[in-house]
What does this fold into?
Amino acid sequence: MSPEIEELYQDVILDHSRRPRNFGELPDAAVLVHGDNPACGDEIHLAVKFDADGGLEDIKFSGRGCAISQASASLMTMKLKGKSRAEVMEMLRAFHDLVTADTSDAPKTLGDLRVMQGVRKFPQRVKCAMLAWRAVQQAFEQGSGEAMVSTEPV
Amino acid sequence: MDDADASHRLRGTSAWQAAKRLQFCGRRGDRHYSVNASHALRIDWRAAERGADCVVHKAVASQVDWNALREDFPILRQQVRGYELIYFDSAASSQKPRAVVEALRNFYEHDNANVHRGLHTLSGRATEAYEHARQRVAEYIGAANPDEIIFTRGTTESINLVAQAWGGKFIREGDVILLTVMEHHSNLVPWQLLAERKGARLRFLPVRDDGTLDVDQLSSLLTPEVKIFAFTHISNSLGTINPVAKLCAKARAVGALTLVDAAQSIGHTRLDVQTLGCDFLAFSGHKMCGPTGIGVLYGRAELLDSIPPWHGGGEMIVSVTLEKSTFKKPPHRFEGGTPNIAGAIGLAAAIDYIESIGRPAIFEHDSQLAHYAADRLTELPGTRVFGPKEERGALVGFVMDAAHPHDLTTFADQYGLAMRGGHHCNQPLMRHFGVSGTTRASFYFYNTMEEIDRMVEILHAALRFFS
It folds into this structure.
């Protein structure tokens, strides 16, 4: 087994892709974002509920796709639940760096999300890893209702 | 391979004698000799006579030395991520033999100039080579004459030419364009654009669960409003081989024209446009050992005559005033601007190469690989193989419960195995089968049974890894 593939598909990632956490509906969600990765056919439906201060009170997702997209969404929901808007945005930036930048050391604040670092060696898979994050970003921008987000510019 | 029958180690003039006796391709060291009577002059027989060793392959599948042909593809001799490359993505783009690369190089090093306008020697040579390529294409697909061959950038551009230039003139509001559910986006989107522009309607011949077209529905779909029926010869994700001649005859019976997307068949099987009875045929060079950026639209002469110009510019005009122009006859009417001269020459070299092996032998070999792969894949638990059991083109699409196509192709790539995962520009077809995508292994004559065995081993490893 090559080290790259071991790093890309760490046990944590495989575990989350097989048994995604926070998977399902969120009936009283404020925003529902449909995320689509047309190149791969990955899809994610992200439901978000905000607290009184605009922080992320609850988050769930459903959908289907590759192990990377599903595990990334699962790990993300665990990490972001209870975070303030500013913290979420900071995390988004740090995660993007984690899966794209060559040099940066992964910030400790990312915690478990650091297992996604292997993606940086597979540039074609960055979109898979970022799909859920694009959706959560859209959820904050939108604030309420439904939205679509795609990894391809339309 | 039977030495006595098909393979001869030849010295000197015996090579020439053998060439006359056999249909074969010969090699000497790095050089590949495409040999048959029509282009024997292209061979450096003097080199052969200086004591060349030529291994001669008779063009029958069981007697072709397929492994020796691999030597014509230097790209195949490499390691990817520490493993021998297995290239199973020829349906996306085939590899190029040295003969094609050499033809491009030879043109650029010796004959390069623009065509049809210079009065100097190089332009003359370039024009001759370019028009010779047109002739070779016409022969290759059985066109009645070379003026029926239009060079384009590829299948997509060929289909767009018909949809925009022919459709622009002849399609009216309420007309019907008949397609099938298995079309590649390149034989769908151009018609969607046309239908929207003209207020025409699209209609689709369904696909059965076994991956074949539901031809029983053809009579109810082929009504007199159908002006054109455009369909693929071989499905790029199912491998289905469609009954082209039969479909063309049925369309003709209601006065509809036919366009055949031959992208997946052109390098694998013999086809003759006059026997098939199609009105248009589109294909790309790069899926049949040729360069990228060159393709062909065949159209019946009287049809092409009736179609107005498409891209305006140089090369396609007779005379131009500030207000108005008159246009050349086909095919030049449709080749505005400097064409892909080297591409056409490379395509002709690809045709020579393929014909030196023989398409019947290639078809037999490729379909043996595809059937073997389909059989072996069914051994893998939780694996669904798409497409017909009988009569399969040179590819197999499948999904595994254990892993998404993208995870699978990423995993396989770690072992040097190049496959394609995704929707294969077949989103409606994928939806029809209830999947977001498949993994596709596609083959060509340079692939081997051993490579398929290796693929199955790698997929077993993937199963263990992802389950």
